[in-house]
Design a protein that fits this description.
Blueprint lengths: L1 H19 L5 H27 L6 H33 L19 H25 L1 H54 L1
Helix pairs in contact: 2-3, 3-4, 4-5
Length: 191
């Protein structure tokens, strides 16, 4: 009997340690937050250079610069989703339910939904890059050649297909969970 209680204490300690280990990720999210501030500096640096050269930039070049700023903001959104979403799903729940500024995407967020949001964000970022290539097609063709542009298109399509497959997988998994739960509940009512 004493041996059983010793094993149980060890098991409780080990499980507590394993549960605590989720905090190992916290420094990663802190690092991503610091990276976001560094990227913010890059955004304002690009904005400043664009502002300085506004009168000398051709319309196409101006459009490309603005798309570059959009690209930076989309990457920043991705970092925020990974940081807040990852932390709240895998490390510790963030108690912002009653906060008036709680982002809508945090509602009922789980790991599957976070993956879909990340995949669609990557597809959007890739789409902006592809748009930049199409806007200045001649220069892109000189730099990367037609093959390089085709590779960009293929990469973008891979991101889109991946996002669609993740969404479909999540839909199937989600409907299975709810269907299974309903079947169990319905079965319980019969007994």
């Amino acid at each position: 009997m004493a041996q059983d209680s010793g094993i149980k204490r060890f098991e409780n300690f080990f499980e507590g340690f394993m549960f605590w280990s989720r905090w190992v990720q916290a420094p990663l999210y802190t690092g991503l937050t610091i990276g976001a501030f560094l990227y913010l500096v890059k955004f304002f640096q690009e904005l400043y250079h664009t502002f300085q050269q506004t009168t000398s930039l051709h319309e196409t070049e101006m459009m490309l610069r603005i798309l570059g700023l959009v690209d930076i903001s989309m990457v920043m959104n991705l970092v925020v989703m990974v940081t807040i979403g990852g932390y709240s799903i895998f490390t510790s729940r963030i108690d912002v339910d009653s906060h008036e500024d709680k982002p809508l995407w945090l509602e009922d967020l789980d790991a599957g939904q976070l993956k879909i949001k990340l995949a669609t964000s990557l597809a959007s970022i890739s789409g902006v890059q592809l748009l930049k290539t199409f806007i200045d097609y001649r220069e892109a063709e000189q730099k990367a050649g037609a093959e390089g542009i085709i590779i960009e298109i293929v990469i973008h399509m891979v991101f889109i297909i991946s996002a669609l497959l993740l969404a479909q997988t999540e839909k199937i998994t989600h409907s299975y969970k709810h269907g299974h739960a309903a079947a169990v509940k319905f079965g319980d009512e019969d007994h």
